[in-house]
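Late entry, evening session. Most of the bench is empty. Finally got around to the prediction I had been postponing all week. Sequence below, unchanged from the version circulated by S.P.
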Amino acid sequence: MNLSDLIASFASAATVNYWRDMFGKIFIFMISGTISLAYADVSVERRCLESENNKIRMELVLVGDAGSKWQGGFVQYGKKKAPITIVYAASRGMELGTRQESAEQTWLEIIGKDVTGAYEFDTNAAAISGFRYTNKKNGKAVGYTDISGSMDSVETQCLTK
């Protein structure tokens, strides 16, 4: 192998490595853009609710994806207790003019494979009112009040009581 053959082989290997590295960077850039677009419509809403007798406090977390119209969430009744899955069941809205003014939402509580209760509440823009939980087994209903507005951070302050 002479010097010109060695330089030619090095140049072509360097060129191949350059384009392989460049393609990898372009591919990663394209994928990262796709991932950020995929999560662009995801919303997370956290609320802190307290029972009418001030004995029970829970955190409500609702997650939605506007692109796929998927909704899900969980409730948690204390820092040491496991979150309980809730699934969106229904919504009834009242429209005034061309926009929806308020909606009553129903979410079902799922523990294991069973529906164990229902959460119902009214939404009006960013406010939640008329929140109530009904236990499916005994039919007992408990009313809650949204106290999120009195906190700097629902995530860190809600379940500290």
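Two things to note before I forget:
Strands lie at 42-51, 57-65, 70-76, 84-96, 99-111, 114-124, 127-135, 141-146.
Residues 32-36 have pLDDT under 50 and may be disordered.
Will write this up properly tomorrow.
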